[in-house]
TrEMBL record:
Enzyme Commission number(s) of this protein: 4.2.1.68
Protein's UniProt name: L-fuconate dehydratase
The species this protein was found in: Streptomyces ambofaciens (strain ATCC 23877 / 3486 / DSM 40053 / JCM 4204 / NBRC 12836 / NRRL B-2516)
Keyword Metal-binding listed: yes
One of the Pfam families matching this protein, by short name: MR_MLE_C
Matching SMART domains: MR_MLE (SM00922)
Reaction catalysis annotation: L-fuconate = 2-dehydro-3-deoxy-L-fuconate + H2O
Amino acid sequence: MDSNRTPRITDVDVVDVRFPTSRELDGSDAMNPDPDYSAAYVVLRTDADRGPDGPLEGHAFAFTIGRGNEVQTAAVAALREHVVGLSVDAVCADPGTVSRTLNGDSQLRWLGPEKGVMHMAVGAVVNAVWDLAARRAGKPVWKLLADAEPEWLADQVDYRYIEDTLSRADAVALLRTGKEGSAGREAHLRSHGYPAYTTSPGWLGHSDQKLVRLAKQAVADGFTQIKLKVGADLADDVRRLRTARAAVGPDVRIAVDANQRWNIGEAIDWTNALAESDPYWIEEPTSPDDILGHAAVRRAVAPVKVATGEHVHNRVVFKQLLQAEAIDVLQIDAARVGGVNENLAILLLAAAFGVPVCPHAGGVGLCELVRHLAMFDFVALSGTTDDRVIEYVDHLHEHFEDPAVVSDGRYTAPTMPGFSSRMRPETISTYRYPDGSFWAADLTGQGKDTRI
């Protein structure tokens, strides 16, 4: 390559990747009984040479649960014209330019605005830019963020609609304070990791025997918090929570998750009925859009905490949840909102209100991604892991080149450059839908047309 030529993004590939997790009821809950965890998988290709490793690339994805992943894939493809041709130097120096451009397309914005399938597509491309930038810098994303100057990080945030609560000056002040003592916290993170909790024991499809076995195993593995799915049948939930409490004892926290199942009155009555087993939080008790409903539930079920966030559309809704004192625990998701830039805004809002962040994870690759954001928050923003845990679900990690690792109930800090978002090539060739080797054979065996 001509050494004087500016390296550029040359293409945006997007692949529909699906895993048949519904066959074993992995991920089953009261609202989503049969998810096939899936990804609209994005690769930013460039002509920036990395020597023997080939051209520099950026990888990311939007997470879905099966049907409709083709819609998510099409949404990502619709952003291609805004990205191809961009300077690699420029986007790595300021990923916020890509975020602002993608969110600013007025015709595509009409499909949201800043919510739903289109916004998740923006998040996937923006996260791929951060993967590209971190690979180029030779750092994991959490380290790239933690090392950045407060003013540069503050400039990555879009303050439109949230400036009444968080200004750029506020962000800079929070980030400057967060820098104090960051070297010591980084050393602690590298040696001790970040606290995790596990949802693996608590899927609704599990028998009581499996629940007990997995709950006891979680405690033996060092977890101090587990989570159970609830919301299908009250008597069953009371019994399952009693069973789990007996299995883990009084000192292990048990969170419960309704996955948006209830109306407000139901959420209050159901949570109070479960209170005898001392649940730590009730997660997604009602619609993620119902800010005042969450506030009403919170007032009525205390001391059980209220947590939500994995389906919250954007920074504006998070701002209102915090303003309304509607939640005790804020749950960011790495792939729901508009990528790292918007999650940075949400982390700053949480820090400003003093509300702990306990990220949502699981799915396809969400554990791999969100650990970077939580670790940055600990090292260079909130400065604490008190009452903070990252969700962990033990499946599908083997499909990533830099899989999440949990030891003694704690996430280890990733050291490979990038966002830990790159899937193994053999995974894509096997689980690409509908023509990967697994799906082609499976759909043919079921007598189904393999065309989308």
